[in-house]
User: Fold these one by one.
Assistant:
Number 1:
Amino acid sequence: MTLLNESNLRSITVRIPILNSRYQRITGKTVYEIGCHAAGVEPMPMSERRSLKVASVPVTAGGGLIGNFAEVVAIILQRFTDVEAFVTQGTDVTGFQEAILAGADIIFTADDVTCLAYNVHTGKQSDNSLATGRAFAALLELASGMIDDEVLVLGMGKVGIGAYRFLTEKGIPVKWYDPKPNISNDIDREMIEPRWKDACWKYIIDATYTPCFIDAENVSADSVVAAPGIPFGLTSEAVDKSRLIIHDELETGIVTMICEAMQA
Ligand code: 2YH
């Protein structure tokens, strides 16, 4: 599990103004529409979204506050989904209570292991890692048009599982690899590909925490790579050779979380 750092948060802040147009160019959809597609929900009208109150609660437990993480989550939500997002003054349980008393409909909060969205009315929750996996599988699918080959999912932690579930729900064939597979029952063990390094892949989702391990030999000029993993897993030669690399550090995952948390 990678803990975001202040440099990740700075690059998110720089990317926020350009992400909608970048994703619209490659997928035809806004970040909010991609989140809805990943979560499998219909977009909610903007007038309804604007009336939603969403709290972001800073957590000091464990490694403690990471820069302005809670503010960045609130900015992402406000910017891409138009909800009324705010950061609580209090932290931890005190902040959680503050959010409830302030009438929050949805509460976002994260410690070192879990980043959670919780719908106060329905009890529905969304886990950032699973949502991020779904989000990047949705980005890969939308950016590729027709997927006409197997998708290689590298890493079968929660992010990989989220991606695998999205793809298999759509009937898209998946191969996967994880050196320490400890996987849930719905993952097909027959589809493991221990020799993935010997091949060139048209579609890859890097859901690992390993830096620079996907080489130029593993991609072609047709390759589309969705890379939620931090640190970034491709070598610079692999980036240069690929048709398209899709990467953001938090944005699409957070937006998919609110879409999941709003599911009926
Ligand atoms: O970055 C993280 C964890 N790796 C969970 C992410 C799950 N994909 N947590 C952020 C911790 C934030 C901190 N507690 C704060 O500032 O509130």
Number 2:
Amino acid sequence: MKKLFLAAIAAVAMGTSAYADTIKVGVIGPFSGPFALQGKNFKAGIDAYMAVNGNKVGNDTVEIVYRDVPQADPAQSKALAQELIVKEKVQYLAGFYFTPDAMAVTPILKQGNVPMVIMNAATSAIVTKSPLVVRTSFTTWQTSTPIAKVAFDAGVKKVISVVSDYGPGIDAENAFKAGFEKAGGQVVEAIRMPLATNDFSPIMQRIRDSGAEGVFAFLPSGPTTLGFVKAYNDNGLKAAGIKFFAPGDLTQESDLPALGDAALGIQTTFHYAVSHDSPENKAFVEAATKAIGNKAELSFPSVSAYDGMYVIYKMIEATGGNQDAEKAVDAVKGLAWTSPRGPVSIDPESRHITQNIYLREVTKADDGTYINKEVQTFEKQGDPGLAAVK
Ligand code: PHB
């Protein structure tokens, strides 16, 4: 008995959890406010994973502790991450919808001995800020590079670029410009909008005045994207024949009913469509629908959260439940599996996810719902943005 007690003390002193049978995962995301549906999708993906795979890894029980950062707020994100590490004693941090919220936490990972599994934030550079970051979502470089070729091949030679003025927007602008100019096209103007912009009429006027044949756009998914695509339709740009090109953030499935028939035909490139046709996705959508309660609310953050949990379970397995962030991250370098989105792997060098990017078109399914229908596959895409930040 005494021996056991001493062993337990030693384990605690060493910071291991040999005797702690609950492993906490702290998840930071927008669970209230205008972006609450995106956070709800994190939770749906996590719940779906745990419903299918159980809440145990070996003898250990996994417990999720949620913290709400409603809008991009790096100071709040960092404070909550610190609280999760110090008070809640989480072994893993995950979630992070907005880039600034992820960036603010990377400096404390090493000291906290905690890996970070990014389930959305899409600026290429985040993974370079700490060797303890692993990302299961996408980058805007990864998703915006293929649409540049699609735009050029559609016969469009002059494009105006419009993005939110922060990390993933600037990456998207650079990715599109690089791809489009390489193909032979020209970006005639590049507009960066403050993140909080919600009146898009003046922007629509500038797009018209630019004389461009097409517009490339990136904004973070949520009320922002819905407002932007609505403004494109309502201000007559679609009617004027100005073509629309964007990564799939702009046509997330949960926005499509509000856009209605005006969205039909919009082409985007992205890593995941809820309509993706595979047995893995069928099982995922069933479990995630049960978790979220309404299939119409399902969107892409759910799949990155689901795969993020897969990665965390692998990390827990590899460390035997002990807190060893470096060992946990090392264990998933090169990990390959079939995600609901298709085949994926964690690039051992960048710790970012390699995946197919699909060209999709908004169509009406047989049951009358609007979907992103996959029409072309760009296979095994890494992150072209990492070459740019190195
Ligand atoms: C980000 O802040 O990195 C971000 C947020 C929402 C998106 C894409 C990227 O749809």
